[in-house]
Amino acid sequence: MNSLSTIRNQKSYADNPVPEILAPAGNRASFLAALAAGTDSIYCGMKQFSARMEAKNFSLEELDCLTKLAHGRGVKVYVAFNSLLKTVDLNRAADFLNALSRWVKPDGLIIQDLSLVSLARQTDFAGEIHLSTLANVSFPAALNLVRKKFGIDRVVVPRELNVDEIKALAKACPDGLELEVFVHGALCYGVSGRCYWSSFFGGKSGLRGRCVQPCRRLYTQKGQKQRFFSCQDLSLDVLSKVLLSIPKVRAWKIEGRKKGPHYVYHTVKAYRIMRDFGSDPEKKKFALSLLGLSLGRTGTHYNFLPQRPQDPVNVKGQTGSGLLVGKLQGEGKRPYLIPKVELFPGDTLRLGYEDEPWHAVQTVSKYIPKRGRLYLKLAIKKRPAKAAPVFLTDRKESQLKRLLSELEKKLADIPASKVNLQETKARLPRKSFKKGPSFEININRIPGKVKTKGQKTGCWLSAQSHKGMPGHLYTKTWWFLPPAVWPDGENDLKSLVTLALKKGGRNFILNAPWQRAFFIDMTKNKKSGRSLNLWAGPFCNLTNPLSIDALVSLGFSGAIVSPELSSKDYLMLPKQSPLPLGIVLSGNWPLCVSRIISKNIREKELFTSPRGEQAWGRSYGSDFWVYPNWKLDISKKKDELIRAGYRLFVHLAEPLPKGVKLKDRPGMWNWDLELR
Known about the structure:
20% strand; 31 strands
């Protein structure tokens, strides 16, 4: 028997079950390629409500047949339902969940929006619920809360974590909760769930699966034009073996729902070998060769080894999607390519980067040997840049075509169900709070730096803010928690919270629902005897009444909604919210928060996009914040928002670096747009 087809359960792992290989599938061919490669599980999205809406994704009827085929081979199927839902989306989402429950019966849902926990229960969904990396469950204390309060079965951990931090999460995992770790695929510059770049610059939200990838564009700073934020691909390859010793890591996840079947087949094969035969030098070498042929970007271990972290941004390398096979040569109408690898009929080539106006896609029509010559016919108005890179993005080799053809025949024998979308009304929470007067908070980095008449005092919670805060102001101050908390910073933040409570603090804005873990079993401030006033912050990405209702059981007093919504969405929310609502009215809202502090970009200095948009970045602790060079400002809509029912209005005051002057431009963001 071929060792590559050895069943993974052949070995006994009673105390440490073998993690499943979890393959991506953005289309039918990639789904079948994952099966052909012997994957243990597949995750895929629907044509709506997926965090990869640019993938082709699946209809209910198609996914029904594919799931039956997968289940017949002992392979699990998880549906990525990980988009943020607006209020108007809830009934439609309930329709889809109802159909999934009745016909498709996938093994689990991958979600970021907590409204889907409620909707899954309403529609009697019987599968598991997994929290997407977009939900940003990033520190150990959060895990018991997500299991106990929401019944979550698995958490997809952020790609920014190193192996020691993953072990810390595993150690804190309660019974019934598993971890899923990315081992391969594209890296985002921004922390998942903490990136608004695409929405700010393009009106298409990455949190709703429509990211236009502005971080991969060329930017200019001080005369240097570089892709300062474009990351290489994550590739743990041989290091993934370390994960076998962590019992709570139950899945090795491969990113790539926009990738073709060639990529899926080769990466799944490679990680199966490294999981099952990683101690065999020859098999390990073969696995690495498969990854080398998978048509991804250059790989990086990123932060996985804390003693040897790697900067995933390499401005001297090529970070276009696909395998770099050469550069355009020749002048005039007959440019040509001398490829570094063999090219076969059906291979797909992409010339240049997708953000370049002249980029093009071309299919190879005949065999071209390594170092041969392929003349290219470019049906484009603008000529490509000199020595433009050429990437091999997909390949349809004969062996894989044969395997897919065999699976297509088996799929054709599966009778398709007639899936009907029955109208299902989502049961919304009752509005249960009393209307009160509105008020404003000015959130500063340093206490006392900005004082505005009529506004309450607010401050980011940090060691610096504690040093500058007069004791008598602790009770009045609104403490703003950071949007990203890493395992190595959990104890520090807990200490800062404890100190604020000890000095009388009672008003806190939490920027992830899981930060409630720092106030476990607390309803009052022991020093003052007054009730704690905990609000969910804007980084919680709350966009509908059911997601807000999920926070009622955690003891939140109110919720500040996501700043990404349109006026229509904002004005609809208070009518159905179970908690008082707040909104960011003005201030410096970041394009993203990142754990990557690239050595190539200068902090506190402006850089410019190809479209003339300017931004700047600065470090706070271990994170790098990127800000646009203009403020979010919907102040002129305040009266309208008060009439709609909003009570809390937040102003974010960010100290500007020397030499940075903000542009005077409308900061309405998506107010007048229909956010996609």
